[in-house]
Description:
Layout lengths: L2 E4 L2 E4 L4 E6 L5 H6 L2 E6 L6 E6 L6 E3 L7 E6 L4 E6 L8 E8 L11 E6 L1 E6 L1
Amino acid sequence: VQLQASGGGLVQAGGSLRLSCAAPGRYARTFSNNGMGWFRQAPGKEREFVAAIDWRGGSTVYADSVKGRFTISRDNAKNTVYLQMDTLKSEDTGVYSCAAAGRPTATMDSSQYYYWGQGTLVTVSS
């Protein structure tokens, strides 16, 4: 499954961005049955978990660093998962990637994700 993330860019601290991650239509069933997650990797750092959502969109989990600022959601009819990022900080800078888990639940465990998309760069200027 090839996932395509988009929506990154340059934004000032305190601003907002909305990322999208789409799965090709032929993978609609895989997408709609699986939990989805967002991860990020800052320059010189390891990839870290950001947010995850279960297959129905009824359960979410967030990294402590983004709680209250980021919101993950999904639209299975459009095979798309979103990450609304508000009150951005310079430490949110990084390449954001979406991934599909091999399970229907929301999980922060990166080893549970089997399908990864190309990332989109988010740069927050202070």
